[in-house]
Fold this protein.
Amino acid sequence: MGAVTLAVFALVVLAATPARAARIKDIADVEGVRSNQLSGYGVVVGLDGTGDGQQSLFTVQSILSMLRRRGVTISVDPRQIRVKNAAAVVVTATLPPFARSGNRIDVQLSSIGDAKSLRGGTLILTPLTAADQHVYAVAQGPVSLGGGYAAQAAGASATSGHPTVGVVTGGAIVEREVPVNLGADGIVRLSLHDADVTTATRVASAVNAALGDGAAQAVDPATIEIHLLENERAMLMLPEIENLEVVPSRRAKVIVNERTGTVIMGEDVRIAPVAIAHGSLQIQVKTDLGVSQPAPFSNGETVVVPDSTINVEQGKEQRLALLRGAVSLGQLVGGLNALGVTPQDLIAVLQAIKSAGALDAELELM
């Protein structure tokens, strides 16, 4: 009983912690300021016999095409050529916002053939394109595996990490810039990471309190428009806006990973009165409503106060935990954990509570 009470008390303290304010820059992005994905097809050379085999004809064709552009012509059946020191790879990179021509970015390489390892190789000149098929960067340089290796001998082999995946740090040079014109129409738009009407309204209110009434308005649950003053530049106004603090409205959500037995929940998750029997485990949640009457002449109000009780029984041994106030899912889980309930049983209980309509939260299965 003591262990149950202690676990429940700890969770009650956590649930009572007031919501924490967050900076606008941590919960929203400025519309138009975003990264762009780049990709390309390349060849890594200089491998120690760990490249693509004879079956990877696209690697041979890539090398022959490269040699042909350099004036070297080979009139042999490509299937007779072996290039164990080369490997075909897909090259990916992320072009950050406001990247300028000449800036360097990292690239990642992934083998698409049957190469054993990319260790010691060098990526040759590879154009990187975006979805519009324009070249925005060009990559080249030595490949680093970050500790991965592969070794093989007669009847034995050893592998660590992913030897067919590597990186070239600072291996790509930006050749084309993505134009970003903030506030071109006199409006700067903020886009919330998680669309929510309450949060959008609070952000607009915080901006109006800092810049003046009418400066910002929430046009939808994910977008807040901020109107620039005449001749005002967005870059002069954004530093003040993005450091304003608001209390975001969080959705009540429970995340369950059945493979690892992990359960994560927010502090706003609540359960309605419900009774569950799971194997030898029986759970009953009951809520009685009482009335709190104010003292005479105190100008107080009569309020309804819930008085909740959780009864947990496992096997022949019965343990009772009495909770005052609204019952949260965190309090229920704390009591179950103190009784030694397995994660699989806990997940089954949560799914049953949700199916019964007694879980006031979104249940997300991973």
